[in-house]
């Protein structure tokens, strides 16, 4: 349990000074960075510029906000655990805030070094355990989904692909003899063939994903693996290379990957980016390193704060994500025209990344466009190469 930074949100100078003295006298809270803010605006600025504290001590009554409104506003800014420091005892308010996620509710009048120290230690530990439990439950649910999907797809593949084959064969014969078909129906065989191809590819893709990969994982430098995939596996659409930039950095990025899975994720992220930019916008690929806790809330909840990650970013100049970017990971959600996509690409790539200990996140950029970022656990700390 590591506590390196405590942030106190308090507008009263006397209360702020007493809380600071309590923290200074705590036996185990040594070498702690302590920062302050007086209102919601200052708090938001600290979190935006410096990241998420180990814990936040929050006075509910601030200039411009009071009670549950204050807690709700700070909770939306950060995933750091929050302990309430209140000047009045309101049992209903206290129970309501704890039910909404506050780790504790302490009265300022009774604040002493031992009680504050104990509350902070327990709050951070409870928060850690809650997040670990949530992550474990998510992994269990994903495992159950994969198992159910595997059984379903395996059972239906034979029954569906055989009729697809017969329909496709018939469409091919009709295409050869389309001059014998009324003119207003001559496009029908080609449409049938395209629909059969899409259905077959969907079944193949689900089968590939639902079965464990037979290809072993290997430790590779992510930069080299990406370069090889771009050179040998990615089918560049016309004009795409002229609109593509990449910067793979100078640091070695040792990761354990299944090459076929890496290619699948890379292709999906690049195809989505090129689809989003149209025929003129640029796409950029970057690699780098994320060490320690991730500050950006768009990604921090997805990752183990004690793990270092290699990161692969795909940035496009498109219109960005509509609504909540995380909704794009839902199965069968597609923003493409009917018949152009299955809506399974991001769902599948996200599940692949997750079962390898990583994650994929999506984010709109302030300057326009969007970014997809793939976090891959580093095998060891990189060295400059």
Which features characterize this protein?
5-stranded mixed beta sheet; 385 residues; 3 domains; Rossmann fold; single chain
Low-pLDDT stretches: none
CATH class of the largest domain: Alpha Beta
Q: Report the structural category.
A: alpha/beta
Q: Describe the main β-sheet briefly.
A: 5 strands, parallel
Mean pLDDT: 83
Q: What percentage of amino acids are in beta strands?
A: 15-25%
Q: Gap between N and C termini, in Å?
A: 33 Å
Our count of helices gives: 10
Which strand order spans the largest sheet, edge to edge or round the barrel? 2-1-3-4-5
Number of β-strand runs: 12
Describe the structure concisely for a colleague.
The protein is of the alpha/beta class and 385 residues long.
Characterize the structure shown:
By secondary structure, the protein is of the alpha/beta class. It has three domains: 5-111, Rossmann fold; 133-211; 215-385, Heat Shock Protein 90 (2-Layer Sandwich), CATH 3.30.565. It contains ten helices and twelve strands. It has helices at 13-24, 40-50, 67-77, 91-99, 113-176, 188-210, 222-232, 259-277, 297-300, 345-355, and strands at 5-9, 33-37, 55-59, 82-86, 104-107, 218-221, 244-247, 254-257, 283-290, 309-316, 359-364, 370-377. Helix 3 (67-77) links the parallel strand 3 (55-59) and strand 4 (82-86). Helix 2 (40-50) runs parallel beside helix 3 (67-77). The chain is elongated. The two termini are 33 Å apart.
């Amino acid at each position: 349990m590591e506590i390196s930074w405590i942030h106190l949100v308090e507008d009263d100078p006397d209360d702020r000074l007493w809380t600071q003295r309590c923290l200074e006298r705590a036996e185990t809270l040594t070498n702690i960075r302590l920062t302050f803010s007086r209102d919601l605006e200052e708090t938001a600025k600290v979190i935006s510029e410096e990241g998420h504290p180990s814990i936040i001590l929050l006075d509910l009554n601030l200039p411009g906000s009071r009670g549950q409104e204050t807690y709700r506003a700070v909770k939306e800014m950060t995933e750091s655990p929050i302990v309430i420091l209140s000047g009045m005892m309101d049992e209903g308010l206290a129970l309501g805030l704890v039910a909404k996620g506050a780790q504790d509710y302490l009265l300022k009048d009774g604040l002493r070094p031992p009680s504050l120290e104990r509350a902070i230690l327990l709050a951070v530990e409870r928060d850690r355990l809650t997040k670990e439990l949530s992550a474990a439950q998510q992994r269990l649910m994903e495992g159950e989904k994969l198992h159910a999907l595997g059984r379903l797809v395996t059972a239906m593949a034979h029954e569906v692909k055989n009729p697809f084959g017969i329909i496709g064969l018939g469409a091919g014969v009709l295409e050869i003899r389309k001059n014998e078909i009324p003119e207003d129906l001559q496009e029908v065989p080609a449409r049938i063939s395209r629909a059969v191809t899409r259905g077959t590819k969907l079944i193949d893709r689900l089968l590939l994903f639902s079965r464990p990969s037979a290809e072993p994982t290997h430790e590779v430098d992510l930069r080299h693996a990406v370069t090889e995939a771009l050179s040998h596996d990615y089918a560049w659409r016309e004009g795409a290379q002229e609109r593509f930039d990449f910067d793979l950095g100078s640091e070695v990025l040792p990761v354990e990957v299944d090459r076929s899975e890496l290619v699948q994720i890379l292709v999906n992220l690049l195809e989505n980016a090129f689809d989003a930019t149209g025929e003129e916008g640029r796409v950029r690929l970057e690699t780098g390193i994320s060490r320690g806790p991730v500050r950006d809330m768009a990604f921090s909840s997805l990752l183990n704060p004690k793990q270092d990650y290699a990161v692969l970013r795909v940035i496009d100049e498109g219109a960005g994500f509509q609504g909540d970017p995380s909704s794009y990971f839902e199965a069968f959600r597609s923003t493409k025209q009917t018949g152009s996509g299955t809506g399974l690409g991001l769902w599948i790539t996200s599940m692949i990344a997750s079962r390898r200990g990583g994650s994929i996140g999506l984010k709109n950029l302030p300057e326009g466009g969007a970014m997809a970022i793939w976090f891959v656990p580093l095998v060891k700390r990189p060295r400059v190469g």
